[in-house]
Specification:
This protein has about 375 residues and is mostly helical. The protein contains 13 helices and four strands. Belongs to the type III secretion exporter family.
Amino acid sequence: MAEENSGQEKTEQPSAKRLDDAKQKGQVPRSRELTTVVVLIASAVAMMFMGERLLRSLTEVMQVSFSFSRSLIFDTGMLVNQLWLGVSIVAFDLGIFLAVTLIAALAAPALMGGWNFSGQAMAPKPEKLDPIKGLKRIFGPQGLIELAKALGKFLLVGGIATFILWGLRAQLLTLGKQEVNVAMTELASLILWVFLLICSSLILIAMIDVPFQKWNHIRQLRMTKQEVKDEHKETDGSPEVKGRIRRMQIQLSQQRMMQDVPNADVVITNPTHYAVALRYDQSKNGAPVLVAKGADLVAQQIRLIADQHQVPVVSAPPLTRAVYYSTEIGQEIPSGLYIAVAQVLAFVFQLRRYHTRGGNKPKLDTEQLPIPDELKRD
């Protein structure tokens, strides 16, 4: 089916969100044939078990209603009393039969689509009053399908009923030769069995209608490729919004990272393209931790903050690249860089001692720092 707005074909299966939205609107697969079969068969079975008791109750009601004394004719309250008496006699047996039928009517929808209460489905829809749309529904594909089902049910039920009655013709003719009570009892039994067989024949119609209704429900909810994309945007957010959120997350992360730079023990640079800030807690047994890293403008900002807070800055390009690409913020440096970073930290500590106590100025050959081949980056 072509979509009216975009002209795209609805080739995609409905998503879980579309199915949930349809359910909220009351659009669930339903088979009237299945409901009819369940209710009729339940009624027939209930009548087979309750029919004798219900017949006796109705007989008692007839006897009570049509046998009274002459004096009761002139009693103004007799009608109400007789009505209440008749209802009390038949109420229990008839109530059980009606309860079984009601339970079957409520349970049948649960077999297909489940129970579903939707306020939107109950809301008035003015478009349903449009006679043109009504004619389209009657003479459209759905109307033709319903007509075909009605004709199929008529032919099936009529054919099976004719076949059953033709097979019982001899037994039905002999009923006229029997006593009235016996004939009526046998006739009632035959009617119940014929009714049950005819109702059971509708199971074939239901077996065809149930898969069709499920298929038709999915077909009506199919989506175009554009609808799938739009739904993904609504669910996951548009790329523009996601990009903006991502940029904000990066900015917040950088702000927190920059707040940790003043607490670093050393900042190692490339010297211009990369910068990493390391902190080593001597009270713990762990390795140095990367508290900040960045490239280009971020690296420049790290160096500026380090200068402002008198954090030593050491230019060691190979080591900087190795730490930058191998370690994430908040993680310890890999074991392969322990010796190289230890030499840098030792140089920093010696440099601090030199500035406070004097003596020979320490030196560090950053090109000779031991860096494993697997951690080197060009």
